[in-house]
TrEMBL record:
Pfam families: ADH_N_2, ADH_zinc_N. Keywords: Oxidoreductase. It comes from Novosphingobium silvae. This is Zinc-binding dehydrogenase. It comes from the Bacteria.
Length: 335
């Protein structure tokens, strides 16, 4: 009999702290697999800011709210231990949407389950340079923000998982990069390890005043945050600039919709294009993204710092760490 420990969503969270008030840890025997299901011994869990939207009761988000009493969902990386799908035999390492659990049970098509490449030296890179955050950064920078060599790209939440990859992808595509992040240590990381051209500490500096120093203005903005940072950038965009709306983390601690930007008039004044995008819409293009990302990884041009917590029982603390900005790089939990 296989036992499974998992986190259950009991209440909708308030704010972005102390998730153990809204989640509870349970242990029970796994039910026999249903036809087509796959069972995974989870090695790592990915902590993703977007998951916070699933925990909210909002019905106008990008997916319906997770019903209270459900197992908490999230990306998992681990080995198949039992399978009723011959495409995922026991022993293979896979990544997909599972549960915050030590043993995840999934339907491969619904989970976006993939067998990962075992030749990658550090398997965590399947949550890093080869993972969903990297796909998001690649689509956002190259296709939505359509950055061109020599242009200025600004990135918010730049020291986090998605932002740090967006900065490097912009740099690799020949752009000059401005990273916006909270704190001096994050700005040093951006300048020294990611090689951005300008780092702005939004907690200590006037973002708009610093951006006004970008010669000719910001051509492309990869926004993870929304709110006051989006306003500061809109007022400093170059004419015909592009804004890729990747996330709005400044509003994820609330159950009400985030108001639009105060400087929305700049969309007209500067002839801007603003476009939201959502990586699950691009999942079938993974095979197209991976060769470029793998090349950059192997060349040392796509570095990922992992912020790793040990143990399923510490998932709420790791999740809070990420949402409250105490992380540099990708937050994961090792089981
Ligand atoms: N569109 C998509 O398909 C897609 C896919 C993946 C991720 N995303 C989005 O990408 C963003 C980053 O997610 P992630 O999972 O990679 O997390 P992450 O960037 O590793 O961690 C979140 C970061 O957000 C910053 N932050 C939190 N609250 C903030 C606020 N009020 N104002 C400014 N910055 C704040 C914090 O950094 P500071 O210390 O710098 O504040 C924190 O480190 C999220 O908005 C997420 O929804 C979107």
């Amino acid at each position: 009999m296989t036992l499974c420990r998992y986190w259950r969503l009991d209440r909708h969270p308030e704010g972005n702290t102390r998730f153990e008030r809204f989640l509870s840890l349970h242990e029970e025997a796994c039910a026999p697999l249903a036809p087509g299901e796959v069972r995974i011994a989870v090695e790592w869990l990915s902590m993703d800011a977007g998951t916070r939207m699933w925990m909210s009761p909002r019905t106008d988000g990008y997916q319906p709210p997770l019903p209270l009493g459900s197992r908490m969902v999230g990306l998992v990386l681990g080995r198949v231990i039992e399978s009723l799908d011959p495409a995922y035999p026991p022993g293979v390492r896979v990544r997909g949407f599972g549960q915050w659990a030590d043993v995840a049970t999934v339907v491969p098509a619904l989970a976006g389950l993939e067998v990962v490449d075992e030749t990658v030296a550090d398997p965590r890179q399947h949550f890093g340079a080869l993972g969903m955050n990297a796909w998001t950064a690649l689509v956002g920078v190259r296709e939505v923000a359509a950055v061109r060599p020599g242009e200025w790209l600004a990135v918010s939440a730049a020291a986090g998982a998605t932002g740090s990859l967006a900065c490097q992808i912009g740099r690799n595509l020949g752009a000059r990069v401005v990273g916006i992040a909270g704190g001096a240590e994050k700005c040093r990381f951006l300048l020294d390890e990611l090689g951005v051209d300008m780092a702005i500490d939004y907690r200590a500096e006037d973002v708009s005043a610093r951006l006004s120093q970008v010669p000719g203005g910001v051509h492309a903005f990869f926004d993870n945050v929304g709110g006051p940072i989006l306003d500061a950038v809109l007022g400093n965009m170059a004419h015909y600039g592009r804004v890729a709306i990747c996330g709005m983390i400044a509003g994820y601690d609330s159950d009400v919709a985030m108001p639009g930007p105060a400087k929305f008039d700049q969309v007209l004044m500067r002839r801007l294009r603003i476009e939201g995008f959502f990586i699950p819409d691009f999942l079938e293009r993974g095979a197209e993204f991976l060769p470029q990302l793998r090349t950059w990884l192997d060349e040392g041009r796509l570095a990922v710092r992992f912020d790793e917590t040990q143990g399923l029982e510490n998932v709420p603390a790791a999740y809070e760490r990420m949402l409250t900005g105490r992380n540099i790089g990708k937050v994961i939990v090792r089981l």
